[in-house]
Write a structure and sequence with these properties.
Blueprint: H1 6-15, H2 22-45, H3 74-78, E1 84-85, E2 88-89
Antiparallel strand pairs: 1-2
Helix pairs in contact: 1-2
């Protein structure tokens, strides 16, 4: 299998609007060739009896069902706050804006 050439890397860089030096073109050509070789090796190993997966382990949703429940009244919540104003928590100003 022929490797990725400098010209192909330069073409990809132009498409991605990247400016690469001559050394970077050589460096990335070797890296991209290694990556494509690794992907090809995985493709060779995966047979038709292996189903495609997005994760090696089966995943299940562990979240509880979304149920409407009553919440605490604002007065009770704000009674524990260091400062409150207009039924909201009052916090120190952190930006220099007025």
């Amino acid at each position: 299998m022929p490797g990725i050439t400098r010209e192909e890397v330069a073409h990809l860089a132009r498409l991605a609007r990247l400016e690469l030096s001559s050394e970077e073109l050589d460096h990335f050509a070797g890296q991209l060739d290694d990556i494509i070789g690794a992907v090809a090796a995985v493709s060779d190993v995966a047979g038709e009896d292996v189903p495609p997966t997005s994760h090696p382990l089966p995943l299940t949703n562990v979240m509880r069902p979304d149920e409407v429940r009553p919440s605490l009244p604002p007065e009770q919540v704000l009674s524990q706050a260091p400062a409150a104003e207009q039924q909201r928590f009052k916090v120190p100003q952190i930006l220099g804006e007025e």
